[in-house]
Amino acid sequence: MRIGNIDLGERPIVLAPMEDVTDRSFRLICREQGADMVTTEFVNADAIVRNISSTLNKMVIADGERPAAIQIYGRDVQSMVEAALIAEQAHPDVIDINFGCPVKKIAGKGAGSGMLRNIPLLLDITREVVKAVHLPVTVKTRLGWDHDSKIIVTLAEQLQDCGIAALAIHGRTRSQMYNGEADWTLIGEVKNNPRMTIPVIGNGDICTPQQAAAAFDRYGVDAVMVGRASIGAPWIFNEIKQYISTGTVTPLPWHDKMAMLRRQLMQSIERIGDEHRGILHTRRHFAATPLLKGIYGFRPTRIAMLQANTLDELLPILDRIEQQLCGNHLIENAVFNTST
User: Fold this and answer.
1) Beta strand 6-7 with 2-3: parallel, antiparallel or unpaired?
2) How far apart are CA 229 and CA 168, in angstroms?
3) Per the residue annotation, which of 101, 162, 207, 326 is the catalytic one?
4) 312 vs 152: CA distance, rounded Å
5) Distances (CA, A) of 158 to 89, 123, 155, 199, 329
């Protein structure tokens, strides 16, 4: 599969953009674990244009994470074009436009998936961004605004006509948010539309290697995008790649996975330059990781872990967890769900 001149190989697995999740340290680890492309947290076009430092910092891309996309969102043509031109100066490999974020503070103001209620403006933004930049432009969106307006098959053709290089589709409407099951049938319909010539990337409910492989086999998508299942489990990319190549998965040892999360923690602190903020940014991964699920009587320890504000508080808790599991000889036991 290719996005412009970028060759992602056969059956690529892509890291989905996620706010407060896909920072640089996490993206680098996902790339190490086999993600074929990564995407920044989404960045507000108005904040880019206003030169807000915290927003500009989100667009810094390290060489080790390439190919990488910067994702922008907004609700008017001028700011989106200006933001895309500024983002291009950060030298990503791709500019991605977010027409899929469902949260109220974004969609309710007409940006993200809110654009699905104003298709003429959505297409104008896409067309003008494509014309303005020299990089490949991609779009991530949803099936439609709600159950009665699943417009993705027609919209996909219109977006292709605007000149985008690839289209990622989340298999839910905006009204579904992240509830219910993702509907891949319409994603497959887009891919199998003979008018579609650009790559189609499927997204939604890919939580296991088997589900990723089935998405390729059943719906013919060019790539699969993994989002929430990677939070606290960046090794899922390694496991998916193994399964697609060999039909089997040999999970990394428990302690290697835990070491990976610890490394992410330390790299986040180093990148941000503030211990407390680095811990806050990483705690979500520790809260979500499957490594610690199903441990009997773990709730008080989990609460203490998520309330820790310093390394002096957090690291001893992680040490005790590992010592407990090692002492019980249960690290590789299936009860800890070592594979995702």
Assistant:
1) antiparallel
2) 17
3) 101
4) 50
5) 28, 7, 5, 14, 57
Give the predicted TM-score (pTM) of the model.
0.93
How many Å apart are CA 177 and CA 188, to the nearest integer?
Answer: 20
The pLDDT value given to residue 296: 75
Q: Is 239 helix (H, G, I), strand (E, B) or coil?
A: helix
Following DSSP, what letter does each residue of 86-112 receive, concatenated? HHHTT--SEEEEEE----HHHHTTTSG
Structure tokens of 144? 């439609």
pLDDT digits (tens, 9 = 90+) for 82-102: 999 999 999 999 999 999 999
pLDDT tens digits, residue range 227-258?
Answer: 999 999 999 999 999 999 999 999 999 889 99
**Residue 263: φ, ψ to 5°:** -65, -40
Is 101 part of the annotated catalytic residue set? yes
Enter the DSSP assignment of 178. Answer: T
**Tokens of residue 65, six digits:** 């994470």
